[in-house]
Amino acid sequence: MSTFFEKYKEEQAIAVAVSGGPDSMALAHRIVHECDGPDIHLLTVDHGLRADSSEESQQVSQWVKDWPKTAHHILRWDEDKPETKIMEEARRARYALMAEYCKTHRIKYLFLAHHMDDQAETFLLRLAAGSGLDGLAAMHSEQKYSDDLTLVRPLLSQTKEELITYCKENDVPYLQDPTNAKTDFARPRLRAAREILEEEGLTNKRLSVTAARLARARAALEHLTDSLFEDIADMQAEGILLNWSALKTQPEELVLRLLMKSIAHLYPEKDYAPRLEKLEDLMGRLLHDPDFNGATLGGCKFAWQGDRQALYISKE
């Protein structure tokens, strides 16, 4: 992994998300000992969801206090906690807090400890949710979070067991996350089903490879979509005019992606696109419904222009 860090050694500082679990403790330890050059900011988010979360954050501080080139910072989620979608909202808050810290300290790279098992679990969760190709595609080793921050995942080729072994061999302490045993959360339920899945050949390695292949296909489709968008999209003062007579001859996957890209262009600040089912329904009506007379989706209005030769997309 030393070679992996070569491109970051000229940075003045980098940040590492450290929950205290074996994954993030192994990552932090390896970065400290293998990444020469930058100062290393270790960031622990205290979500305040459990009575002992503050104590655990302080424990991480004690473990890393004598590590070279590092400074540990605890970021607290002080917002009112939601009653539903707790894990999703906690994740949103975690990234927002770390991104704000990085922006304040002019840090361009935030390292995360996602590994092969996480990749496989994410694939299965999204498959169960009915995601399309983009949702099933693998997490990237590098991913833009914002214009100022890139997320870096150097552990995607390693398993959780390998990271635990690393901690034991190098005397790196770590916490056990009690939520991993709670079956009211989806990821722990999937972990409990691992043996059954592996008996059917759905090993984490195989799922990760499948996700990576889908990511390759997604990259190709994104390239085609970007080129097509440049050719047929006319940027207007209040919206986007698509050459529909040209677009409707394209494969449906590209039509769908052009609609998605248009919405994203008008609302760049939004984290999520409309649900895939709703986009597919809109595309079907545009392509096949002779009575289609306009619609709204994702905060946008869709209306014909020029006897259905062009599609105008604007904010509501």
What does this structure look like?
By secondary structure, the protein is an alpha/beta fold. The protein folds into 2 domains: 3-209, 3-Layer(aba) Sandwich (Rossmann fold), CATH 3.40.50.620; 236-315, no CATH class. The chain is built from 12 helices and 11 strands. The strands form 2 sheets. Strands 3-2-1-4-6-5 form a 6-stranded mixed beta sheet. The protein has a 5-stranded antiparallel beta sheet with strand order 7-8-11-10-9. Helix 1 (22-34) crosses helix 6 (160-169) and helix 4 (116-128) packs across helix 7. The mean pLDDT is 88.
Structural class: alpha/beta
Helix-strand pattern, N to C?
Answer: EHEHEHEHHEEHHHHEEHHHEEE
Instruction: Give the CA-based shape.
Output: elongated
| CATH class annotation of the largest domain | Alpha Beta
Give the spatial strand order of the biggest sheet: 3-2-1-4-6-5
Specify the CATH architecture of the largest domain: 3-Layer(aba) Sandwich
Q: Termini distance?
A: 49 Å
What is the helix fraction of residues, given as a range? 40-55%
Radius of gyration: 23 Å
Q: How many helix segments?
A: 12
Number of strands: 11
Mean pLDDT: 88
- Extract low-pLDDT stretches: none
Question: What is the CATH topology classification name of the largest domain?
Answer: Rossmann fold
- Total domains, how many? 2
The CATH homology group name of the largest domain: HUPs
Please state roughly what percent of the residues sit in beta strands, choosing from under 5%, 5-15%, 15-25%, 25-35%, 35-45% or over 45%: 15-25%
Sheet with most strands? 6 strands, mixed
